[in-house]
User: What shape does this take?
Amino acid sequence: MLNPHHIPTARDIMTHSLVTFRAETNIWDAIKKLVGRRISGAPVVDGEGLMIGMLSELDCLNVLAADEFHADDHGNSTVADYMTSKFQNAGPEMDIYTLSQKFLTTPVRRFPVLENGRLLGQVSLSDVLRGIEEMRKKRSALRKRYPDYREPA
Assistant: This one.
């Protein structure tokens, strides 16, 4: 159990089990997986586990504008053809206050958590909200155990 005064970090609240793609994954397979899992994006990693990009639903919309969408065979495009290679991330020791500020000042709704370029997990708005709720519960429990004796009963 964490110390009630511990400020949660990205490492504490991140999701560890993620759908990831490789750059060479067929774009249609990636879209099928995003739709099937009902997720709005996934990190793209290389063979060493280093993050090289992010594929989002928005990136996938570009498939509609591609010539191969209108071709009978739908082509052989890969995730690398559509992924975003410039992405924002969080470090594992970034605290919940810094994460909150990062979410408030960017349109991004999830950040991959990287350590030395290697993908550890992902932190989303809902992860931060769960962290805030957990902090509140711990602080509330601490107040109940140690009442303020300066106030009348």
Remarks:
- Residues 125-145 form the longest helix (21 residues).
- The domain at 10-145 is CATH 3.10.580.10 (CBS-domain).
- The chain has one domain: 10-145.
